[in-house]
Amino acid sequence: MDYRDIQPGRYLGTVTSSCLGRAGNGTEQLAIGFDVHLGVEQQSVPMTWYGFFTDRAWETTEKALRALGWDPTEHDYQLDALNPQDPYETPIRGAQAQLVLEHEDDGEGGQRIRIRWVNSVNGGLVVKERMDPGSAAEFSQTLRSRLLAQRGPQTPRRPTAPPARPTAAPAATRPASSSRPAAPPPRPAPPADDVDFSDIPF
Question: Which of 63, 135, 141, 176 could, after both became Cys, cross-link 131 (CB 3.0–4.6 A)?
Fold first, then answer.
């Protein structure tokens, strides 16, 4: 497949590999290999996407990783996980994304196709110098410290108190009843049967 025949546009890409490395000028970079699917009747082609870690480029790199289902914040910025001993055993292998391919100047008066926002090469997973595991871990820790410092202290969220349950209205109080039983009404005096008539004159 001649890469000059690839037209700019949107294509589906599948991750095949990844590693941390350095460019020719010594800049740290993340290289992710893709199989770029050109269409139903066309073969896939391998291309490499490069992510960088400068303050200006990090936002693009972070968005690309999230699009592949690997959120740097959820992995505590441990990017050396993307630098396995075998690049084809990367944890993001098989992840898919939509790739936007564009033309760029090749420095020799012509043009070449690239994956948007990063430089592209004519296939394969290529870096000028591959990081060894120790260098990758050291670089990952340095990058993590810098990114966490940029985020600043995070205020933990306070748990939200559940809404107060309505209290029942107090029942009407009854007057306290006396412990003594009520006195019965006075009984009427019985009629006198023994009337003394001795004082009545005749």
Answer: 135
> Which residues face 12 on adjacent strands?
37, 98
126 vs 142: CA distance, rounded Å: 24
CB count in 10 Å sphere of residue 146: 13
Q: Is the pTM of this model over 0.70?
A: no
- Per-residue pLDDT tens digits for 97-152: 888 888 888 778 778 888 874 333 344 455 667 788 899 999 999 999 999 998 88
For residues 113 and 97, give the distance between their C-alpha atoms in angstroms, rounded to a whole number.
Answer: 18
Q: Distance (Å, rounded) from C-alpha 145 to C-alpha 147?
A: 6
Q: Number of C-alpha atoms within 13 angstroms, CB side, residue 111? A: 11
Domain ranges in the chain are: 3-151
Coil, strand or helix at 18: strand
Q: Residue 6, by phi and psi: left (phi above 0), alpha (psi -120 to 50) or beta?
A: beta
Q: Is the separation of the CB atoms in 105 and 111 below 8 Å?
A: yes
